[in-house]
TrEMBL record:
PROSITE patterns: GLYPICAN. This is GPC5 protein. One of its GO terms (cellular component) is cell surface. Cell surface proteoglycan. It is a lipid-anchor; GPI-anchor. It comes from Poecile atricapillus (Black-capped chickadee). It comes from the Eukaryota. GO terms for biological process: cell migration; positive regulation of canonical Wnt signaling pathway; regulation of protein localization to membrane. Belongs to the glypican family. It is found in: Cell membrane. The keyword Cell membrane applies. The keyword rRNA-binding does not apply. Keywords: Cell membrane, Glycoprotein, GPI-anchor, Heparan sulfate, Lipoprotein, Membrane, Proteoglycan, Signal.
Amino acid sequence: DLQICQHRAPTCCTKKMEESYQAAVRRERTQSIQALNFELKYMIVGHITAFQEAFESLLRFAENRTSSLFETAYRPMAKEAAEPVKELFTDISLYILGAETTVESAVLRFFDSLFPLVYSRLINPGITDLSEDYTECLRLTRQDINPFGHYSKNMVTELSKSLWASRMLSQALSLGIEVINTTEHAAVSRECSRALVRMQYCPHCQGLTLIRPCVGYCLNVMRGCLASVAELDAQWREFISTLEYLTNEMAASHELEVALAGIWSSINEAILHAQLNGPQLSATVDKVCGQPKQQEGNLSSANIVPVKEVTETQTFVMAHTSLNNKRREFINYMKRSRTFYASIAERLCDGDLVMRDSSTCWNGEDVV
């Protein structure tokens, strides 16, 4: 009553054993594909973590640099500016990770929050009553009167260009993991499990437990079983090319590292621009929002303190070098995996599964 391992000679198998063999080959096929995938998946997961750590290191550096700008040059508003600065860098981090947000909304929200502080602490430092309504009016007015000139828009442009590739790379790596996980659990068809049993276990039914399949026979069976997985070859090659393009974009003229390191400088220029245009801004704000309460003897026109570049570059250089090295190492590894899905049958038929150095092997019907 055997369905798969039918043979002229006497057999030591039963139908129940054939069913057990089918369960075994399904399990083994999943495990062997998982073993093949392991190195590739390990590399991608490792680089997702490494890229993320490098991004976070650069973001922390840029955030600390920006905070120190307020503490050294704009002390009257440093404490209140801490929260908007933190929010800006949190938004940037979320954007890189693929959150439904934009660089433009993050930057403009920051400048909306910054304007009431610049106006009340630097342009008109005599203001004593900054009510919620007045603050909100200043926030809304910022969009119309553009107190920060072209600096806010320039910051959006620079960051958008450099962060886009990082965001896309982050999403592409997650997609790569998803693809690999899906191929591990691709269903084994009935025909495939029967073919695998015939190849791996039918010799056992005749007591030939040491005979292994012939190489050509193994390749035929595996290619048939993995036809659907091998179809990913063209898309996988395209995926690797896209990763290469994105890593090159990240290393091109609009580098993430340079853009992040320049945030403090853009903010400084924007604040200086607002201070220099203080009288015109005050006149416009008074018309739109009314006049707030002032101390006697208005202290207006606060000292404008141009800021020299912060010199703490060691952390930045290390994070920059680390990110560049990781990009290079990663893309070189991924390029070597271009044929991953095209050659999956060959790699499964490698090693202990088949008989390579012997003239005796199993061809599905007999020992040859």
